Amino acid sequence: MSALTCTHVNAKGVVCSGIIEDGVCGTCGRPATAGSLLAGVSATTSTAAKATAAFTSSTATHGTGKTSRRQTKGTTSRRQSLGGGLVSMPIMPSQDPMKLVMATPEVSLGKRRCPHCNTRVNRMKGFCPQCSEAYDFTPKLTSGDVIAGKYEIKGPIAFGGMGWVYLGWDNVLSRWVVLKGLLNTQDAEAAAAAVAERQFLAAVKHGRIVGIYDFVTHGAEGFMVLEYVGGRTLESIRDERGPLPVEEAISYILGILPAFGYLHTQGLVYCDFKPGNLMVENDDVKLVDMGAVRRIDDPDGAVFGTDGYSAKDAADNPTVSSDLYTIGRTLAVLCMDFLYKIVQETDATTGKVTTSRRMLSAYMNALPEQSSQPVLAQNNSFYRFLLRAIHDDPDMRFQSADEMEGQLFGVLREIVAVKSEPKPADSKVFFGDGLIDGADREGAAKPLARILPQLKMDAADPAASELLNLAAVIDPQRRLDALRNLRRKMPASAEVMLRTADTHISTGANEAALTVLADLLKQNEFEWRAYWYRGKALLQAGKAPEAKAAFDRVYFEMPGELAPKLALGFAAEAAGDVAEAQHFYQRVVQVDPGLAAACFGLARILKASKESASAARALEAVPSSHSMYVASRLALANVLIHAEQTPAQGFLERAGATLEALPKEGAIVHQLSARLISKAIDQIRSGQVPERRDAKLLGYPITLNALRQGAEKEYWHSARLATSAGEKAMWVDLAHKVRPITLF
What we know:
Elements: E1 20-21, E2 24-25, E3 125-127, E4 134-136, E5 146-147, E6 151-160, E7 163-170, E8 175-181, H1 188-197, E9 212-218, E10 221-227, E11 232-233, H2 234-241, H3 246-265, E12 268-269, E13 278-281, E14 284-287, E15 294-295, H4 320-335, E16 340-346, E17 353-359, H5 374-377, H6 380-389, H7 401-419, H8 441-445, H9 464-469, H10 476-489, H11 494-506, H12 510-523, H13 528-540, H14 544-557, H15 563-574, H16 578-591, H17 596-608, H18 612-620, H19 629-642, H20 651-660, H21 667-685, E18 692-697, E19 700-702, H22 704-720, H23 725-738
Antiparallel strand pairs: 1-2, 3-4, 5-6, 6-7, 7-8, 8-10, 9-10, 11-13, 12-15, 13-14, 16-17, 18-19
């Protein structure tokens, strides 16, 4: 039987083709199917599994119980290696396991909380002053202990929310393992129940999730036996280096998102993600500490989380969106240094002073002002991504790991491109812009709604196949009639309403389009595509400020896409906001100059601001393979010829080289050539440049007589190609004016 291969597509549009093992691709780490691994696994429920302290930093009393009402809709799937081929990542070598064993195991003061009432206590062992119950933070296992007849304990390596974590050696399989406590309890029966309840985790198998080998009990304690991962946690890397470069931090998060997607497709939520739960080993990442994983909508499952990382709504009912919230918070912590204050505490028993970081209460569920953090001020799309990821309203957050990954990859692509070179990539949501006809002078000269990218069809829409058949219907009225019939037939189809609105916009019926879109938003207030078409209708209707608001909503939903930024540039230009238009155009050009509408838009703004050199660079960015390449070179020559300039800037020479590289087809090339030569004649006559017989412009020696002859010739060519008698007479007059004086 042949092996199953992965069919996910990477950032370059290439099928992964990795081998599927245990339901997971060994190359990209994605699940092969959405079938639940929980099928057939009994779920033992027990009151012993209910945590007495739901959050490690403080008791979770702020839950709202609200869950997301949005439907999940994937967008992109673009990742294999760390950094997605965009970022060179540091290699984290494996560590010697024995070096991790703590010589003097102590729990820091900040983590000493009564397991019964969550009150802070000072000593390692004693009775809680609040509830009078006994507590003990000393390790229960010591070096040499053998658990379940085969796991030899080497010593404690960390202290977590459910007790000590130990390094062990599997004497049967000769491999390192990690034993992690399941529940703080002094009851052997409760420990056994806790172990039974976590058995479903044995079915979790993913290349980027720590392997779960076994579940065992030892006296009154239950343990998960986990794969040993010999790298370093992001928490330790962050503590050592400070805030990480944003590209590196994003790459780590992109690496772990497929693991979250896998868990969610299996009906599980991770709950307690933070920098300490992501391990980096060699050139890969792995999700560790599975102790807080639970079933989605489990009414009896314990809820664990960490203040400052967990959403308020997660305390009552963790969901996919609350899981993704923890990812957004983790990413913010990795990149910025605003969250913490330094706290020094003295152990009452030993006198030892412990220094730790505490999250500031003002930032437990919030970000700082964008202007206060360079990484946010310089990367607006990254800031927008975080705003959506950690939104208070679950409905406004990302709804799937795949959706989050797609947008985060786009944000990374933008950040890297701005610092290096363009990183074009096909969008899974938008087509390219509509500026594809070199003869479309109006489209190149104005921010027109018809030039903005079209949305791609949602293949999952019930009317998708019938809508594809309508693509052959050219007449707008016939198309509208067919769409009305289709809407009656399939009222649940969002695509039918979107295509109806788009057809109205194409005919100039903007109000009719807005009415259809309003109806769609009544059906689904989270349908961001309706805001895209709403923005186009408003822009076409001359309501630029309102169009900007609609496009801004799209930008919120899709921070990794370039189309919303192009649209915001159009709306800003139409509204007269030159600075904002320039910002958005510039960003799009830096990432993908194949969106020629951004290049022409940026050139328009810069030319109007008399920044001719910058306008020229914007036009030069249009790729040579683009259908607008010749039009961009003609526009470039025009900018260089008519710019306020000095000879030292070499604008005329650049214009000449640009025109010489173009085919001598069409009147515009001859017209620009004539104006270029005439400009050179003016510079010689004014004394700005000397005549030079050893140099040429468009093949003519740079002397007055030769240039006059050249200009005359180009004007005559223009006259022959004129489209009206008046235009022809104008070019003939100019030819007579510039020709050199002769005897006949």
